[in-house]
Specification:
- This protein has 253 residues and is α/β, with parallel strands linked by helices.
- It has ten helices and eight strands.
- Helix 4 packs parallel to helix 5.
- The longest helix is centred in the middle third of the chain and has 13 residues.
- The radius of gyration is 17 Å and the shape is globular.
- The two termini are 29 Å apart.
Length: 253
């Protein structure tokens, strides 16, 4: 994947606002559902996040973990087929799962451009190893932190990553308390977390995922967010295209 996503938002507050990226997030119940939702973004976004849940790290399950062995996913891993419309999109995979080290390798084989690894999903040594291995295989890696962690703890972890030369391409902070579901209420505490992270690590790419609605887009961008991951506010709209365009117009107003 090109480095265009990495350069977003490092100049001025107005630049951050204009360049804040909207990433549509798909939580698919089946391969057919995934295919339909991906197609609805054709010609609108170039990068999509696929939320994947195994029912172990979070309560919910999504494709391809709804079945014990999903035939479509196996074909994709074996590179007999590709992810839907793979020629037209880059895919960021949000790994809300256990056994993240093993599963990360499968998603890299499936064609992921970027992996989001949840810090709390496994012991820290496994998380570190997954991040290192994934980077060596040529994909971007983002570490996700939840709001039940203190900001001081997150800052300490990121400083330790730097000391240990664990290279990451950004952090994702959840904007909701209960992950693994779309349509959850936005927690304004995330604005404070973003401001503190941006102050401590001014060159760090920051994403916010969960509960993001158009009215929160500008406050988040002004706080230092480079990527807004949006699920239900786009895909539950009668027109996903109009919803996406509305986010863009709000950010550029």
């Amino acid at each position: 994947m090109s480095n265009s996503h990495k350069d977003d938002g490092h100049n001025s507050a107005s630049s951050k606002k204009e360049k804040t990226e909207i990433i549509p997030a798909i939580m698919a119940s089946s391969y057919e559902d995934l295919t339909f939702r991906v197609a609805s973004m054709n010609g609108i976004a170039k990068l999509l996040q696929i939320d994947v849940m195994d029912g172990k790290f979070v309560e919910n399950k999504s494709w391809p973990y709804v079945k014990s062995e999903d035939r479509d996913f196996i074909k994709i891993i074996k590179q007999e087929e590709g992810l839907p419309d793979w020629q037209d999109f880059d895919f960021e995979i949000d790994l809300m799962i256990r056994d993240v080290e093993n599963e990360a390798s499968k998603w890299i084989a499936a064609g992921a451009s970027r992996l989001v690894v949840h810090y709390k999903s496994e012991p820290e040594e496994i998380i570190k190893r997954t991040l290192r291995d994934s980077k060596e295989k040529g994909v971007e890696v983002v570490v996700d932190f939840e709001l039940d962690m203190e900001i001081e703890e997150i800052v300490k972890i990121l400083h330790n990553f730097k000391k240990e030369e664990i290279e990451i391409d950004g952090v994702q902070v959840m904007g909701i308390d209960k992950i693994g579901f779309q349509g959850e209420k936005f927690d304004h505490k995330v604005l404070y977390y973003v401001k503190e992270l941006h102050k401590e690590f001014p060159d760090l790419i920051i994403s916010v995922d969960g509960g993001v609605k158009p009215e929160y887009a500008k406050p988040l961008a002004d706080a230092g967010v480079h990527r807004l991951v949006v699920g239900s506010a786009i895909f539950e709209d009668d027109s996903p295209r109009d919803a996406y365009d509305h986010f863009k117009s709000v950010l550029n107003s």
